[in-house]
Specification:
By secondary structure, the protein is α+β, with helices and mostly antiparallel strands. It has one domain. Helices cover 35% and strands 22% of the residues. It has five helices and five strands; from the N terminus they run βααββαββαα. The chain has a five-stranded mixed beta sheet, sandwiched between helices. The chain is globular and about 45 Å long. The termini are far apart. The N terminus is likely disordered.
């Protein structure tokens, strides 16, 4: 579990602002994800998602935990919020992602 950090400590990209608006990610849910979310490094970015098993027992069945379920927030190396999206299998999806970003040569071969 990561340290509690309010979302206003992060800078936002224009892309993130557009995606958050389009996908209707509320500020309080974003704060919950950033405060209690597990961070995983994959594909050159840090993915933050809430894993219910890692939440304190008092929060596991809360409405905020239910609303945060499935959301993935991407952070750049500079701790900028890049994008957000929702998947039903968020933790499994992140585990299956490659750990490193593909090089230009690898992209051309694929």
């Amino acid at each position: 579990m990561c340290c509690p950090v309010p979302s206003r400590a992060f800078s936002l990209t224009r892309h993130f602002i557009e995606r958050r608006s389009r996908r209707q990610l509320r500020d309080d849910v974003l704060d919950f994800i950033l405060e209690f979310g597990a961070r995983a490094r994959a594909s050159g970015m840090t993915h933050v998602t809430v894993l219910e098993r890692d939440l304190p027992a008092a929060l596991r069945s809360s409405s905020m935990a239910r609303q945060a379920r499935g959301w993935i927030v991407l952070l750049s190396d500079e701790e900028r919020l890049v994008t957000c999206y929702r998947r039903g299998d968020a933790s499994r999806f992140i585990r299956r992602k490659p750990k490193r970003r593909m090089s230009a040569e690898q992209v051309q071969r694929a």
